[in-house]
Each structure stands twice: as C-alpha cells, then as structure tokens.
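Sample A.
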Amino acid sequence: ISKKKPIVLLKAGKSNAGAQAVSSHTGSLAGEYAAYQAVFEQTGVIEVQTLDALINTAWALGVQPLPRGNNVAIATNAGGAAALLADELSKNGYRLARISPEIQTELRTKLNPSAQVANPVDMLGQAEPQDYAWSLANLIKEQAVDVLVPILVPQALVDTMGVTKVWVEAAQQTDKTILTCLVGERSTREANAFLNASGVPVFRFPEQIGPVLAAMRKFVSFRDRPAFSPIQVAGVRTERATAVLDQAVGKTALGEFETRQLLEAYGIANVPGGLAKNETEAIQIAEQIGYPVVIKIAAEGLLHKSEAGGIRLNLRNANELRVAYNEMLAHITQNYPEAHILGVMVEKMAPKGQEVIVGMRRDATFGPMLMFGMGGVLVEEIKDIRFKVAPLSEEDIDDMIAGTIAGKLLEGYRGAYKGDIAAVKGVIARLSQLALDFPEIAEVEINPLIVYPEEQGALALDSRAILKR
C-alpha cells in the first residue's frame, strides 16, 4: 500500500457470531473482524467508526499538512469548549503545548487583561477577529506548537464571519496543521462553507477533533515506518513437522503430545515430559525428568483439559503420581465416555513465571493471523491480546508485545523482573513460520507460554492445534 496517499475506511458488518463456536482460545478471540483490524494496522489503513468521522478525517488529510508532533495550542472564546477538546486530545495521544513566557507576554499586550494566555488561550466571550488574529500569529511563532485549533462559540455581538476570515489567513501563513471549531449550526452555515471552500476543516463540536488528529498522526507513523522486511528464523526442521502431520491424516485436531513435536521441530522449547500409556511408563518418565511433576490427560475429543478435570499438579513422588494417575483416568472415563484416551502426559512442574499466550488462526481472507497476550485460563475474559497477519517483521512483533498489558509486565512493571522478551519474540516468529510453511494447520496455540527473567528463556507448558477439514 502506498505511503503517499492515506486510505480512510469505514467497515460495516463487524459482528462475528461464528467465533463462539470454535474450540480453541485463539479461535474464539480471533474473529473475522480481528483479522481486518490487524491488516488495517499493518498496512496503514485508517479505520474510523462512523460516517461522520470518515468524511471529517478524509477532508482533513486532503487539505491540511500532517502534524509534525503532538503538541496542540487552542485559541478560544469559551473555556468549556476548550476543556472538552483538551480531554479529547489527551485520549487521542496529544497534549497541550507549553507556551513560552515570551509569547505569553506578547499575547497580553493586546488581549483583554482578564484573558488566559497560557494554553488554552482564552480570550473570553466577546473576542473579536483582531483578538484571534493576534493570538494565532503568536502561536504560529511558538516553536513548541505543532497543531493550532481555534474555537468560536458564536455570540450575538461577535463577527463570526470576520473571525473565520482570520482563521483562513492564519492557515495561509503557516505549514502547521490547523483544524477549527465553530460550535453550532444554523448561525454558522455561511462561515462553515467559507472555511471548507478555503481548505480549512471546521467541526461543529470540539470533541470531533481529537480522533481526526489521531488519524493524521497514524498516517505519519505509517509513512515513517521502515520498509517491510520479514523476520527470518533458523534451525527449523520441516521434515520432522511433515512427519507429524503425515501421521495425523484424517484428524481434525492435534493434542499436546503431537503439537509439542511440531513446536520442537521449529525450535520452540517445551517443558520436559513425555506421553505415558500406562502407570509404569508414567513413573519412568517422572523419574527421568525429576519430581515434582504434572500429569495431563491426552485424549482425542477433549481439548480443554482443565475444564474436564484432566490435570493434576505438583505430584512429588511415585505414590502420589500413581494415585493421581488412576483417579484422573477414572474421572475422565466416567464423565467423558466419548473421549478416546491416548495416554497421560507427564511433565516437569515448571518454575513460576509470567504466563502469556501465543497463537495462530488461519483467516480465510488474509491467511495466518498471529496472536499474543495475557495467558492462562482467563484469557477469554481478560482479552488482553494483539493480532498481526503473517508474514511478520520484527517491528510487527515488537508492536504486538508492546500493545498489551502482558508486554508491559514483561518490561518489569513496578520493580518486577524484566522478562525474556527476546525469547517471546522468537516463539512468535517461529510459530509464524510454521503457519506459513504448513497451510493445512488451521489453528495452533501455546497457552500458557511461561516467560522467565531475561536470558532465561520461555517454555511452552500446554499446546494444541486444529487442522483444516
């Protein structure tokens, strides 16, 4: 997509009731609309939520220079309108510019002695065209100002048309972004038409301006983004993954035992463990990897093991393992007779770390869609997730992680240890490559991926995959 011409888009048909019917956490979170959002973000498409915003945003992008920064100066005759705008600016990544003492002193020389000359510059209700002219001229000179927003709430004795002519003259004298606000409708029609004809966007309400400025900055960020370069991964063994998938012909789902093999083939570390077909094998595996251990049911037709009671934690010796093994098998057999039990996964009880989820769902339109966010059993309730469509660049992966609460926690929130973000990035990149190499994989999920402190890596504790039907 070109970086010269912005694309502003309003998408209808965002609901996706079908997402409720899928079997994995990744699938239920990654509905069709999430794929569109990911593609819009990666390609710089500016999505808006209303027809009004579509027109306003396209018009501002078409006639005004792009903001050079996020510092805004407001010149107004109404403090309330300015306060509404300031709130909206803050929500959309902008802030009020700091006006230098020199400019403030200059403003005071011609404005009402009671005027506020910091920011917003509030010239009070009876502000005249010459007041706006003086204020805007000085704010244009202020180097700290990137965007100018004059506001007028029309008064009976104020020359509305005269004020708007001043706004147009100011816009013609600067390459800074100027968006304007004339509060009202009936009394401002002529002035609105004049501003629009002069290429100066005008809004009826101050709160409409924040989202438009956010869209303009989004395009700036996209324009300045480095050229796309897909991330490369080394050390993958496609032949091993092929062998696993060949053995799964006819299946629609892979349990943890088989999915672990796919992950290992692509260099993603699993917690040590293995599949036991009986009690004796379970004890042998446990003694090989060391206690304490976890056991998990491995059964076709039973993807969510925790909800089914198919997990036992912190088994410290052979006796505890034996009892838990038999109790769990009896429970699954009695309560889920339709499940085809393959055995029991015996795994090392992993040290505690930060739980995240990494997943992939193949979208019918855009292909493999990667997911990252807060992991664990509450992933669908918390919904702290970001999506990107493969292939991914390093910048895409960085953005996925940074855009979540999970990513902020990995950075070392409030004195906590900093997680091994490099290891997480590696897992995302390798899962993306797995999805690109094997289009027959419809979904794959690692939940949780346990992340340890810097340079100590990350381990997949549980995983599953869905194959194309």
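Sample B, a different protein:
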Amino acid sequence: MKLPYDDAHLIADPLYGYLRITLSRPGEVAEPDIIDNPWVQRLKRIHQLQSSWWVFPGAEHSRFAHSLGAMHLAGRLARQVYPTLREVEPGTPSLPLVEETLRLAGLLHDVGHGPFSHFCDEHYLQPAFGLDHEQLSQHLILNELGELIAALRRSPSGPFADGEAVDPWHVAYLVRAVPAAEAAGTAPIPRWVRLLHRALSGAVTVDNLDYVRRDAHFCGVGLGPIDVDRLIYYTFCTDDGLTFHKRALSSLRAFLNARFYMYENVYFHRVGHAIDLHLGEIFRPTMEQVLPRSPLDDLSSYRRLTEWSLFTTVEAWLDEPLHSPRRELAEEWQAIIHRHVKYSVVYEHHVERQQPLPAARDLTADEFHAAVVRHLPPHLRGLEFRVGIASQDPRPVNPFAGPKRIAVYDPATDRIEEQLLTGILEFVPAKAHLYRVFAIGREHERELALAARAALSEVEPQSSVNL
C-alpha cells in the first residue's frame, strides 16, 4: 500500500506546528539533501538576532530555524497564487516546480550570512571585499548547491511535470532580484519568476512574515495580531506581480506596525545598540585574523566560520602573550560575551515622519557627533562618547513604485488602486529615527543630554512627531 507518509516528512516548529519536507528515497535527491548540506547546517550556529540574544535570554533561535520557516511560508504562498500566476503567464510550469523554486529561495535566502549576520556585512564583508550576504547566497546557490537543486524532481505537492527541473538561477534571482544573474551569460529570467520576485524582495515577504513573529516569540515580546494566514490568502498574481486584495488591508497595516514595534523594542534595543558599538571596535581586526581573504576566494574557511567557531577562536587568544594584539582583542571579546558593556545610553530621542522632508537628507552619525561636541561646555569637548542613529522605514518611502511597491487590488474597479493603500499608510510612519548618545560612565550625563538636545534642535524640524 502506498501511503502519503512515504513522500513527506514532518519537522516540528513552534510557529506553524509541523513543516512538511519531501522525504529522501534511495537514489533520489530530495529536500533533506539540501537542508542537511553543511552550508545550510552552519546556519544553526549563527543567531537569528545578531546581538539581541544578549538582551533577551530566550532569543537563542538560529538563522537555520528562520530559514525553514521562510521555506514553509514560501511554499504556502506558491500554492495560493499559482492559479492566478498561471492565468497571467500561461508559460508558467507545473505547480510543484513553482512551489519548489519558491521554497528553495526561502530556505537559502540567508545561506551566505557570516557571524552576526547583517553586522558582518556592514562591518567587514562590504568594506573589505565589496560583498554582502545576498551576493554570497547567490554564489552558494549557483556553485555549491546548484547540482543538488537541479537534481530535485518533486515538491511536497507532488512530482514535477516530465522534463522539468528547478533552475538554480531562478532561485538565485528570487533571493536578490537584480539583473546580475542575466549578465552572466545565462538565459533570461522567465516572466513567471519575475512576477514572484516580491515574495522575498518586497515590503511584505515570506522572510519578514516569519522573522517578525519568530523573533517576538523567542524574545517573549507581545505583539498585536499578525494574521499571516489572511495576508497569504488574499495574495494573488496580476500583471503587476504579487498583489494584495483590498480585504488584506487591515492585516497589512497590523503587520507593518508590528514590524515597526519590533525594530523599536528589540532590534534597536538600547543595550543591543551599545553592544553593537563595542563590537564594532573589535570586529574588523578580529575578522582580519580569522578570514583575511574574501569568502569567494576561500569558501572552505568561510563555511567553517560561525559564531561558535569565532567565540572558540577568540577565547583561545587569551593564552597569547600579555598586551599582544590578539590578547587585547580576546579581552575585549570576553567583556562583550559576559555583558560587561563598555557604553551606557545617556540620551535618547525618537523622531518619526509621515513623509520624507523635501530637499533634505538624514543626519549622519559623524554630523550628529560633531554637533554634540559643539554644544558641550568648552572644558568637556574632549570627552569620549559615541553616538548612534538607528533608522527604520516602517513602510516603503514610495510604496507605489520601485522594488518595495505594494500593489492593492479593488474588486469594485477591477484595478490596482493607490488610494486604498494611502488610507492605511496614514497610520504607519514613512521614516523613523532613534538618536542616541552613549558614554563610558554617567559622570557627564546631563551635559551630554543637553548638548544632544541642542544639536538635534538645529536639524530636526518642529513638525517632527516624538514617538
């Protein structure tokens, strides 16, 4: 007797109950062969939250768990939009192939991350090698995992049509919807893939639909309702790509506000921000020791590099001679690991704007620091302090055009109507800034706070709304 249990396996997940993956058979490549690949398994040793796990004790979840969640949502989305995708683009292949292409993009979108995730991008990979994790993910999908991907022949929904196979270039394109894939001499990305690019490269994606809920769950943060089921149910495909039906608007607004709440209260937490500042002082010199060459030139070293390996390496440097560069780095790492945070917040100011200011640009950290120095009493202008500006776009600055476009369909007019979106976005700021001043100790907290307030009064207009 053939049973459905012969084709799929269950993985328990705290958000979704059970995730289904295809079950390996003798002589066949299936999803476990990719999930169990060392490149994917290394994500178990990289925290989902780069520094927030030092602040929220329960936030020990990994990039691996998030990637499985994104894979699951991507499959659900594929099954939901497939009928309309096929109607808009008759050349669309079978449902199992579309489903598997999207599932793999969800699974592998973060496979290129280094230790501390986005922090590694910003503080080492980009300045040292001009790379980010998405470019590395694309490289790994095409070169390290491409053969396995191309050998798959079914999704949890069933087998592909005869002659079909997942194209690794399509998976790579969905991870980073840029024309670089086409510039490499490959066949043009088909229209059905382009129509799906917002699944992972938009304002509301399977990526952030998973991480907002997952991060809140493990941090113990209470959010309002995030109705992922409704958002997916009311998503379909038009000539514009992935589109929301107007009945999704209330859930869309709730999700954008929940994501904003997580940025303010978790991702930009004051202690996490202070740890990031301290970490920024030692991260690049540490990485220059453990990964001196570009990951593209030394993939084996990069594959072994995780947060676990990094902590083990820097702890071993405690045995180096006193005052040696490695010993000094190791001591700073020990301070961070044991939460002996170098900096404390002495001033904090929130600003939100409904629309970007015309002919204006955001204040840089260097400009903010210089302005604070100018407003300090003369005898304190040599005081050591740091500033941080945490900026967030709670909604796209331009939700009606570009890669972050949010298309909303009105059945009354049978058209995508911009005014429907305008109504809910009035309640979601376009830009939010969190200005902070950090000091070593609190001896001059009052002077720094007054100077920061005066500095911001020069650049922030009176119409700004404090959160």
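Observation for Sample B: Residues 271-337 form one domain.
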